[in-house]
Amino acid sequence: MVLHEVTAIAPLIGVYYALDYVQPKVPFPQSVLEEGNRRINKLRQYVGWEQLAADSPVLLHLATSYAVVKAAAPLRVAACLAMTPWFARWCVVPVARVAGSIWPKSANLRGWKRK
Fold first, then answer.
1. CA of 50: how far to CAs of 30, 45, 57, 61, in Å?
2. How confident is the model over 85-99, as pLDDT tens digits?
3. Where are the domains of the chain?
């Protein structure tokens, strides 16, 4: 599950910053963008964050990034399957060894006994 989430979050951030850097003209009605920014500004004001400009593309880039990552889900699943042996060898096994040295197998953790 960790690998699956990493293959979702890393591209989400990468696509967002790529869109922010390139500033593409996404065919989207300006009135809808302004209305979305107006609504999100109410939440941002409530939380105490700086408000967005009416024509700010931040939310549009976030939504586009999310859609791109969701559309690439089959590729992400294939990448996870391909990277699983490497990830297990270099990340999971070392963590399991450290955890095993901290908590011996005979330890009674949270009331559970090993058989």
1. 21, 7, 15, 18
2. 988 888 888 888 888
3. 2-85
